[in-house]
Amino acid sequence: MLSIAALQAVVTANPVDGEPSDAELDAIEWEMPLILAEVDLLDARIMTLDRPANVLDARRIRRARNQVMAARRNLTNRAGSGTAA
Question: What is the Cα–Cα distance from 4 to 82, expressed in whole angstroms?
Answer without folding.
Answer: 51
